[in-house]
Automatic annotation (TrEMBL):
Gene3D superfamilies: Vaccinia Virus protein VP39. Synthesizes nicotianamine, a polyamine which serves as a sensor for the physiological iron status within the plant, and/or might be involved in the transport of iron. GO terms for biological process: nicotianamine biosynthetic process. InterPro entries: Nicotian_synth, SAM-dependent_MTases_sf. This is Nicotianamine synthase. Its EC number is 2.5.1.43. It comes from the Eukaryota. It is an enzyme of class 2 (transferase).
Amino acid sequence: MVCLKDPLVEKICNLYERISKLENLNPSKDVDTIFTQLVHTCIPPYPIDVTKLCPKIQHIRNKLIILCAHAEGLLEKHFSAILGAIANSNPLDHLYLFPYYSNYLKLVRLEFDLLIQHCPTPTRFAFIGSGPLPLTSIILATHHLTNSTFHNYDIDGGANSMAEKLVKSDPDLSRRMLFHTNDIMDVSGSDLKEYDVVFLAALVGVDIEEKNLVIEYLAENMAPGAILMLRSAHGARGFLYPVVEPRDLRGFEVLSVYHPTDEVINSVVIARKCSVSTVDHQGFGSMMLCSKCGEIDQGFNHLNNQMNMIEELAVEEHL
């Protein structure tokens, strides 16, 4: 079992102690510096399985993911406020001010290329955990899926208000991008069945138990054949984000899994909602059965060269 005797774990724990002592996690030189050190520590390939951490280190990992999520949220709010305060102009014309906008362009293009291999003509998206700066939805809507509708869900009404402010001055996007302040677990099955694609943000469910509850709810309520896209992590990067394994996607046929080996933080998983359902009588709730569940197509690993310049979300970019 991995513990503090591991040099990488020891270094990460030391960084966690420094981060936990910061007065706040608002964007600043000190915050940027220490999170950059953390990410650079976690990026290199390293033979570690975060599921085998001892309880003490697992506890630290869980708290570290929460801190990373909080820092990412503050960074997005900071830049969303800057963009929203630009007078007499469409804020979307100034997205380049966000320091990692070019990286988002590359990442979303890659995810789009991956998606259309399995869903060539998606028209209705649900993005769960869109936040105050919904760059993924905005880039998909403006560059790749110009006739699609995007329903953005976030539990934070303030974040939704900031995001809505960014798109309201654009006649096209204000019509095609809608914002809902909801816990996704409270969204009805009839609503979820309307979507061709459901995109689950990396930090919706900061521990695997919570994330699995969301995945189970989606498995019960998404339309058969609909696509679930989610971001995960692999190896030491699991200290920054929750790890979702294919076996966690009960009720889905796993279509593609991509684990980067360069500076890209997040793994990408695409799965299809299975069409046959039965009830599990062993106390685990409803299960969706599919003869191909667990099959993984690694076909997009040939895109590794395209991924080399991509950083995932703001946390790993400024972090």
